[in-house]
Amino acid sequence: MSLRCIRLVTFDATNTLLKFKVQPWEYYTILGRDYGFEGSDEDLKLRLLDNYKVMWNKYPNFGKNHMNWEDWWRQVVKKTFDGQLPSNANVDGLANQLINDYKTTKCWYLTDGSHEVLNYLRNYGAFLGVISNFDPRLVEILRNVKIDYKLDFIYTSFDVGYTKPDPKIFNHVLMQDIPGKPRNIQPKNCLHIGDDIEKDYKAAKAAGWNALLISNNKNYQECIPKEHIFQNLIDLRMAISKNKLNVF
After folding, report:
1. Which part of the chain is CATH 3.40.50.1000?
2. Residue 185 neighbours by CB distance under 10 Å
3. Which residues cross the membrane (predicted)?
4. Measured between alpha carbons, how far is residue 200 from residues 41, 146, 169, 238 in Å?
5. Which of 28, 38, 41, 208 lies in the 20 to 30 Å Cα band around 107?
6. Counting beta carbons within 10 angstroms of the beta carbon of residue 6, is it exposed (0 to 12), middle (13 to 18) or buried (19 or more)?
């Protein structure tokens, strides 16, 4: 199927349109120093990843239906730094600073090729958006990296109530009455682009959509068509510009 048949294109956010300036545990370490943290970023890496996983398993989707997302992140921060700071440290202040900084370009930058890919897809007449497992800060982040104006819609898992790889998140977006959205779009007319083979590629396929994977993992070529895999958005943009993109 050629790109001419695609009427709606969505992107994942993290590691697709957006990149971390430094790994989260490194930034946690940097800020933690101001509050008395003396350990290494490797120590904090294990604690952050473990506590994020614990919180996600107990209160998935950033605490949706259990608490507000800010309190969810505060618990992650407090558990990560538990026993790692002086007894008089302002842990709430640290958590709030991290929550706020992760809205900004202190922590995020726009992936190379993002503007160009969106421009090419727009020229094909595609309706453009984002579907991401994210909390509501995503809208502000995309505004801060100056890409929001190229998007027709932004849906986060927290707002929708479903998380990838649940195909329902794709079905939900397709059913929404979004201003400017072409009528009578079918799943076969939709394309999702992301970096995670399970949450992006296979999940979109399970919803009946077309999908492309942004990854330099060559092992994926054994389980999905190699023409559906691109190392980065620059390579994807080149394929579009040369009319060599095959999404079927």
Report:
1. 3-19+108-241
2. 15
3. none
4. 29, 24, 11, 21
5. 38
6. buried
For 69, the token pair is 């997302």
User: Which amino acid would we find at residue 244?
Assistant: K
CATH topology of domain 3-19+108-241: Rossmann fold (3.40.50)
**pLDDT (tens place) for every residue of the chain, 248 residues total:** 567 789 999 999 999 999 999 999 999 999 999 999 999 999 999 999 999 999 999 999 999 999 999 999 999 999 999 999 999 999 999 999 999 999 999 999 999 999 999 999 999 999 999 999 999 999 999 999 999 999 999 999 999 999 999 999 999 999 999 999 988 899 999 999 999 999 999 999 999 999 999 998 878 877 899 999 999 999 999 999 888 888 87
- The rounded distance, in Å, linking the Cα atoms of 79 and 74 is 9
* CB 185, CB 171: distance < 8 Å: no
Decide yes or no: CATH 1.10.150.720 for domain 24-101: yes
How many residues does the structure list for the chain?
248
Distance of alpha carbon 72 from alpha carbon 222, whole angstroms: 38
Tokens found for residue 68: 């507000």
| Block residue for tokens 């079905």 | 171
- Distance, first Cα to last Cα, the chain: 5
